[in-house]
Design brief:
Chain lengths: 346, 346
DNA sequence: CTGAAAGCGCTTACAG
DNA sequence: CTGAAAGCGCTTACAG
């Protein structure tokens, strides 16, 4: 029904091959012929059939975007929309489309990736997460299929191209920031340790303590799952310690606010009694009370650069493995307070 | 290179047609043959080529998802990730994939939609917005291409299937809610009036005033663009009116918080002096101070139902045009206060 | 229940 | 600079 390359060829008195070459803007066709063929294409309302072209050319001009299962962090604001925006910008500039994974569970996602790869649905894949022991990542690596990750791979770091923040360093800086405000008792509320980002941030926290001569205590570390299931109690226990923290680093702005609310229940003031700093710099964090000091992690760039790297890989299968860190920045607002170190010690 | 249907056929001693029918699980093939062919497929690691299958079958098994340009509301949390989640659930259940638009400007988006339709990239399209005078919507309708919208179309309402909230009604209810708390001076901060959702909410506000015997005043209506560019001043003017409002309805939780911040600058307490209610029930709104009363609009359902409707349309081109409203609910928190109507009037 | 053949709408060596 | 031909990997009437 639709007008095909054959119709155009007939109408323009050339062969289908020629029409095909005009579409591709091949230099081997004379300007005159091109002009004539293009005129006919417009006249007939011709559009190349995507599937047919891809089948013949053995390409798809689309990249697959995979996020971790929907129950996890990835679906929270604002990471997801922003990273997608970055991907869109880069993909659009190179005339690539985006095919989106729809799977729910880890297993479904894995199966979907396999079918994307084997079924030749996409030219390359972006993994929007990095999880410990991830089968999908391993598969992609073993298949030698073009892919990049947003997040440092937990393994094979030298064989996989990825974009990330320097999570260890920035968390280190966050702790130092609090230290410089006079804090010595600094608690940490981590993310899901199945994800490398959470591990790196925890490492940064621990190393900073060490470097600053503060000792690490299990009591000062709350895992994200206990915040989720039993946050109120965990925060109460934290504040009932003999030496309750004067500052808290939270893995995400959302959990920071959750904690602030529990603190309120205990009549603990932020930042009066306890300073708190979050990660990810949510849109709301500027407006909320107290405006939250938070680490901006350049989410759009994360998506943008991951896509650029993938596109390089697709276009040149010999392209070197590359890693980038995208900038992070502590956005100071009003949830952290300078204290004079007059308490117990010293 | 990859193993094809031919390889499987040869190995299983059947024709390619038979293999194809086994893939489709056609009832016309004996169980015995199916078993044998499937065994060979596993053994050889066969996966059907997506493009080839689609080209031959004249289908794509994928739906296109289009959002409004990235500068607008759609990219704000939490609408975007949640609506996508809804779409994914439904698409995945029906084994459809998702092709995502990457365009930046309105024109780019339009071109992309045309190429999706004409290039046979997708079987149907979901428009994640409804804009006044939208060329893309008109095009889809005129082409008679299967599509649905999240949001009431500004035109051709009887010819287009869509899912929406009953925005007029819920805004009406919101005003009544405030009225029942004793408020008589209720201001409204609207969204971008290029979008139908904003128009409907404004209408609901105005009709509620009318029904409740309150008069509508231009002074009580702030357009979203002035909030964006000159919000502080607009809020100041609002509060310096002879009869400043005692309650404010904000088109979105984000703008509600922005307003609250400006109010603070004027030492106006929320909800002490002014009550405020938002829309969209952001994830943070529960945690923030004051916890914001907000209208939950069931975003996931919006995506889910729009996809279901589209799938019906795709599978049956004669399917009737349908509309659904997805439930809305006022989530009461702490930003609205009952007042005793003792001020000036009466 | 199964197969031979045509066809989906392109691209790309190969030849001139 | 252009064309004829083969092929990409499937599906689907048609025939038996």
């Amino acid at each position: 029904m639709a007008v095909t390359i054959i119709d155009v060829a007939r109408e323009a008195n050339v062969s289908p091959s020629t029409v095909s070459r005009v579409i591709a803007d091949s230099p081997r066709i004379s300007e005159q012929t091109k002009r004539r063929v293009r005129e006919v294409m417009n006249q007939l309302g011709y559009y190349p059939n995507f599937q047919a072209r891809n089948l013949a050319a053995k390409t798809t001009q689309t990249i697959g975007v995979i996020m971790s299962d929907s129950t996890s962090l990835a679906f929270q604001n604002p990471f997801f929309p922003e990273v997608i925006r970055g991907i869109c910008v880069s993909a659009h500039a190179s005339k690539y489309g985006i095919y989106f994974s729809t799977g729910g569970t880890e297993e479904e996602i894995f199966q979907e990736v396999v079918s994307m790869v084997q079924g030749k649905k996409v030219d390359g894949i972006i993994l929007l997460y990095s999880r410990v022991g991830d089968r999908t990542m391993k598969y992609l690596k073993d298949e030698n299929f073009p892919f990049t990750m947003v997040g440092r791979p937990y393994q094979y770091e030298d064989e996989i191209s990825y974009i990330d923040n320097d999570n260890e360093r920035i968390t280190h800086e966050v702790v130092e920031y609090l230290y410089n405000l006079g804090h010595r008792k600094i608690a940490f509320i981590g993310g899901n340790l199945d994800f490398v980002v959470s591990i790196d941030r925890l490492n940064g926290y621990q190393k900073a303590l060490e470097k600053l001569g503060l000792s690490y205590s299990e009591d000062y570390f709350i895992r994200n799952d206990v915040i989720k299931t039993n946050g109120m109690k965990a925060v109460h226990q934290l504040m009932e310690l003999n030496e309750p923290p004067t500052a808290i680093v939270a893995h995400d702005d959302l959990v920071a606010y959750e904690v602030i609310r529990y603190l309120e229940g205990l009549s603990v003031q932020v930042p009066g009694d306890v300073s708190i700093i979050g990660f990810n710099n949510h849109a709301l964090s500027a407006y909320v009370k107290p405006p939250l000091t938070s680490v901006d992690i350049s989410i759009v760039e994360l998506g943008l650069e991951a896509t650029n790297l993938l596109l390089e890989k697709i276009q040149d299968s010999e392209a070197a493995v590359e890693h980038y860190f995208v900038p992070t920045k502590i956005i100071e607002r009003e949830s952290c307070k300078r204290i004079t170190t007059k308490k117990k010690r010293e």
